[in-house]
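Ticket #595: bound-state structure for adenosine monophosphate.
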Amino acid sequence: MTEQQQQRDDSACAVDLSASALPESNSNAEVFTTTIKSAEPESGFAGFGFSEALLRTLADKGYTDPSPIQKAAFPELMLGRDLVGQAQTGTGKTAAFALPLLERLESGQKTPQALVLAPTRELAMQVAESFKAYSAGHPHLKVLAVYGGTDFRSQISALRRGVDVVVGTPGRVMDHMRQGTLDTSGLRSLVLDEADEMLRMGFIDDVEWILDQLPEQRQVVLFSATMPPEIRRLSKRYLKDPAEVTIRTKDQEGKRIRQRSITVPMPHKLEALQRVLDACGGEGVIIFARTKAITLTVAETLEAGGHQVAVLNGDVPQNQRERTVERLRSGSVDILVATDVAARGLDVERIGLVINYDMPFDSEAYVHRIGRTGRAGRTGEAVLFVTPRERRFIRNLERATGQPIEAMEVPGNTAINQGRLDRLRKRLSEAAQEQRPEADEAALLQELMQRVATELELSPEQLAMAALNLAIGPDALLRKGDDDWIQNTRRNDRDRDRERNSGERRERRERPARAPEENMQRYRVEVGHRDRVKPGNLVGAIAGETGLQGRMIGRIQIFDNHSLVDLPKGMPEEVFNSLRCLKVMNRELQISQAS
Ligand code: AMP
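RESOLUTION: The complex was predicted; output attached.
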């Protein structure tokens, strides 16, 4: 591949996040902002009002220019404005909020000034690490990650010693707030990172509870890869006149690549592959496999099934690679089976379908793979094979491309036969529009047709049918017979899913958390999800009735028809009785000691 081709490859690539997100190659990305009117700073990170120490840290990290989302977010956040950002991981969104937040921290405050909520422990750790790295020039700043599944006590003593920035998962942050170990009275900024993920994971009530407890004057920043209505509602309710920043790639606008996935158990993959090719193949196809050995197995199977196939893997010498790509480009082969490395930067316009025969190593590889289709303004299809166990990774890939991956079934005979008929119709229409290049040849063929028609007394339709038979060859055009195995794998899959989901859901809903703390007693109250109750409603009502401080109220767990509330031991009887009749969400609590 020439250097020019490589450049073309980079600029035209479909949803290449690496090309869309970060400064070194951001030609693909566009910033859409409804509010930003000020002139852009001339270059780099200067001009946003950052301290010398931060500028040095960024230079040391090798950051030369802000990414599009950073350029858009810095001026707003440095002014203390609320902001809604729609951007995916890989766009530099962490630094987009972390740098202004760090710069706006005030020295000498003992209690936390900034709180970041993240959906998972991993993301919380990662964001905390980023804050630490960016605050290298301010060694006195303290950043703490708090998440479930780890020791409370060490988190409490760190909080007591004084922390400036807390990054945590909603559940654990809420626990600390309720226990009074996380003091939010001095909090000036809150970031909701990956808000749509928090919604998906069922944390949205907790997030709202936290938001309800925060000081009136605070800056709220919300980042989300997608904007479902619940997140829009949240942002309307809790953010004040926010700046809005959306990062999109050109190809996301066009949505030129339709992405689908097929769940297929390992032993059925080759059969499923042949069926997908039969139903959806046509123009050029690239099949990606993880290893050289798999490329060979796949190619041999397809060749045995009558396909013309070429292989591109690390064992193919460079000069032969170029010949192979040329054969694919010219249409002398339609199917290429390749490994990721060998197909890097491959730019062939006629690729209409990319099949991920094996799951890619990471989302970057996936984005690169599917970017081999939908080139030069054309549309393309991408099909991902996943085994039942690998299905959980699909969500990451959707986030990386910002587009949904639809589920698709292994094509049955009907879909295959439709695919075959469609291809035949296409070939016939193309042939009807083509002239034979040699005029004398065309005249001879005309004469031949007339002779056969006269000899056999054929109508034009009969003659055309004979020509079609010739083109189709001796094998049956339509596939018949048994496709039972597909039904079986579908059924097994569905059963497994149903069992797993119902089991997990039941467990999540019904399992009470670990025993209450030593000085607490667990009570049951008869309001639950069905009444749309939130922890904040219970805390507010119980605190109001009993005179308890909100932070004295311990863990609250809400189930479908009831909730569990941990309250200090030794509740006087009259207080207990008043709680029995107390109404929350229009329903009496009917409080009782939980068993
Ligand atoms: P994020 O989208 O926050 O997950 O960031 C993606 C990656 O880009 C991280 O590894 C950051 O360290 C890196 N990054 C963020 N901003 C910049 C920048 N302006 N220049 C170069 N790399 C950056």
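RESOLUTION NOTES: The pocket of adenosine monophosphate is lined by residues 22-23, 63, 66-67, 70, 89-95 (CB under 6 Å).
TICKET STATUS: resolved
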